[in-house]
C-alpha cells in the first residue's frame, strides 16, 4: 500500500469508528445487550474497504465529508450485519472473525441474529435520517434505492443464497461471477457509485466508475479465494483453507491457482483502464486497485 | 367480527396476497430456493391485521388504494421477516406457524435466516421504489423513517431483545409495556399512522390516532397472552401454553388472569375513546378494536 493510500485508509478508519461510536451514543439503553452486540460487531475493525472506497470516490469528486459519512456508515452497517449472519452456526459456523470471537460466540446466537437484523435497519435509518446538505438531501431516495439494490434479494442476500446452493455443487465461471457480483460485488459497487449519485456526472464517467467497480469487486473476490489457499491462518485472521473445508466454489478450484492468478491480473488491468478514462485525480483509486491484488490478508 | 369488518378483512387478504404474488413475479430466479422461502413465509396468511389497519385507516381518510398498497406490503414484509427469525431454533424454536411448518423446517436454517434478511430489505425496497401518486411520493422519506423507527433497535428488534432479557427474569408492568410497545406495538402503530402521514391532518387527529394505536397495540398483546393460557393449540395454530413453557413475562403472569382481562377491557375502552374524537367514519376501526378483544386466536 503506497503512503498516500495508507494515510487515507488510516483517516477513514478513524472517521468511520468515530461515526459508529457517535451513532451508538445517541441510542437509548432499553436493550443494552443488543446494543452492545451491534456495536461490538461494527467496531471489529477490518480494512474498512467500503468506507475507504466511499471517501476516495467522494474526495475525487469534491464532495463534502459530511455528505459521505452517512453513505459510508450505512454501507458498513449492511456489511457488518452480513458478517454476523454469515458467521452463525447455520451458515459458515465461524468462531473467529479478524482474530476475535464472532458475535454469536461473544454474546449468544439469538442476540447475534437480532444484532444483524437491527444493523440492517440501522443502515436505512442512517440514510433516511442523516443531516445532508440540501443538494444531497434531494438524492436521498436514490441513495436508499441503491443500498436496497445492493443488499437484498437482487444483491448480497441473493448472492449468499447462490453461494449456499453452489456449495458441494460444481458451477461454471459465469455462475461464479454472478454469485460474486451479488454476494460481495454489489456492496463494493454501491460504495463506489453512491457518492457519485450525489452529483450529475456525465454518463460516460458513471459507466467508467461502474466498470472500475465491477473489475475491482471481482478482483477482490478472486484474491480472497487465492489467499484462502496460499496464506496462513494467522495472517488471514481466520482459518486458512476454510473454502476447501466447506467445499465452496472458488476461482482456484475452477481455473487452477495459476489461472486464477492470471485472471486477477487481467481484472486489475481492466480496473486501471476504466480509471484512465476519468478526468479526475484517480491516484487513490489506482492505489486501492493495486493494493487489492497485492494484499496478503 | 361484524359483517362489514369481515368483508373488509377478506378484501384485504385478497389484495395483499395479490400484491405479494405480483412482487415475487417481478423478481428474477437467480436464487430460487431463497425466493421460494421468502414467498412461502409471506403467503402463510394469518389475519393480515397490519394490512387491515393500513387499508382501514387509509379508507377512512379517503386515500387511494394504490398509495396504500406499498405501505401494507412493506409492513407485512417486516412482520414476515420477524416471524421467520423469531421461529428459529436459537430464538423460540417453533416448528409450526399457523398450522404449517415454519420456514426453517420447510426449507433449512441458513435459508430461513437469509429469507428474513432479504424480506427486511424488500420492505424498504417497496417503499423506496413503489409508484406513488405525486403527493404521496413527496412523503416517501417520512414513510421510510416511520418504518425504520418501528422495525429497528428503537422498535421491534429492540423489543424482541427486551423479551429475551425478560425471559426467566421477573419484570415490572411498565417494563413489560415498553417491551410490547416495541416488540409488537411499534409495527401496529406504524400500520395505523403511516397512511395518515400521506396527508396533512390536524395535530389533534394525529394524536387521537396515536392514542388509538397505543391502546389497540397493548390490547392485542394482552389478549395474546390471555389466549396462550385459555385457548387450545388447534384454535391457536401454535402450541398452547408456550409462553409458560418458555418462562416468558406475560400480563397474566404479572397481574393474574382476572387482572389481565380487566386491563384488556380498560384498554379497549380507551381505544374507543380515542376514536370518538375523530370526525371520520370510524366504524371499521371500532370493529377492529372490538374484534381484538373478542378474538379466539
From TrEMBL, chains A, B:
What GO MF annotations does this protein's record show? (2E,6E)-farnesyl diphosphate synthase activity
Keywords from UniProt, A to Z, are: Isoprene biosynthesis, Magnesium, Metal-binding, Transferase
Q: Does the keyword Metal-binding apply?
A: yes
Q: Which SUPFAM superfamilies match?
A: Terpenoid synthases
A Pfam family that the UniProt record links to this protein: polyprenyl_synt
Q: What is its EC number?
A: 2.5.1.10
Q: Which domain of life is it from?
A: Bacteria
Question: Which cofactor(s) does the record list?
Answer: Mg(2+)
Q: Which family does it belong to?
A: Belongs to the FPP/GGPP synthase family.
Instruction: Specify the protein name.
Output: (2E,6E)-farnesyl diphosphate synthase
Amino acid at each position: 500500500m503506497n503512503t498516500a493510500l495508507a494515510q487515507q485508509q488510516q483517516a477513514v478508519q478513524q472517521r468511520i469508528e468515530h461515526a459508529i461510536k457517535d451513532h451508538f451514543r445517541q441510542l437509548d439503553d432499553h436493550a443494552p445487550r443488543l446494543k452492545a452486540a451491534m456495536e461490538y460487531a461494527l467496531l471489529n475493525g477490518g480494512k474498512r474497504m467500503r468506507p475507504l472506497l466511499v471517501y476516495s470516490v467522494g474526495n475525487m469528486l469534491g464532495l463534502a465529508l459530511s455528505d459521505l459519512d452517512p453513505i459510508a456508515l450505512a454501507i458498513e452497517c449492511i456489511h457488518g450485519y452480513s458478517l454476523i449472519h454469515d458467521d452463525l452456526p447455520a451458515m459458515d459456523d465461524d468462531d473467529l472473525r479478524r482474530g476475535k470471537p464472532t458475535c454469536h460466540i461473544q454474546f449468544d446466537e439469538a442476540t447475534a441474529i437480532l444484532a444483524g437484523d437491527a444493523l440492517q435497519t440501522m443502515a436505512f435509518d442512517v440514510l433516511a435520517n442523516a443531516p445532508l446538505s440540501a443538494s444531497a438531501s434531494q438524492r436521498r431516495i436514490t441513495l436508499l434505492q441503491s443500498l436496497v439494490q445492493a443488499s437484498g434479494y437482487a444483491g448480497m442476500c441473493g448472492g449468499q443464497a447462490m453461494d449456499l446452493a453452489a456449495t458441494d455443487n460444481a458451477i461454471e465461471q459465469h455462475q461464479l461471477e454472478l454469485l460474486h457480483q451479488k454476494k460481495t460485488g454489489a456492496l463494493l459497487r454501491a460504495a463506489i457509485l453512491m457518492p457519485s449519485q450525489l452529483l450529475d456526472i456525465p454518463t460516460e464517467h458513471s459507466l467508467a466508475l461502474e466498470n472500475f467497480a465491477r473489475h475491482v469487486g471481482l478482483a477482490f473476490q478472486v484474491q480472497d479465494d487465492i489467499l484462502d489457499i496460499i496464506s496462513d491462518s494467522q495472517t488471514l485472521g481466520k482459518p486458512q483453507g476454510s473454502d476447501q473445508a466447506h467445499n465452496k466454489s472458488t476461482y482456484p478450484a475452477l481455473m487452477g491457482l495459476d489461472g486464477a492468478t492470471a485472471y486477477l491480473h487481467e481484472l486489475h488491468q481492466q480496473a486501471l483502464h476504466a480509471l484512465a478514462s476519468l478526468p479526475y485525480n484517480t491516484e487513490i483509486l489506482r492505489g486501492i486497485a493495486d493494493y487489492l491484488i497485492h494484499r496478503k490478508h
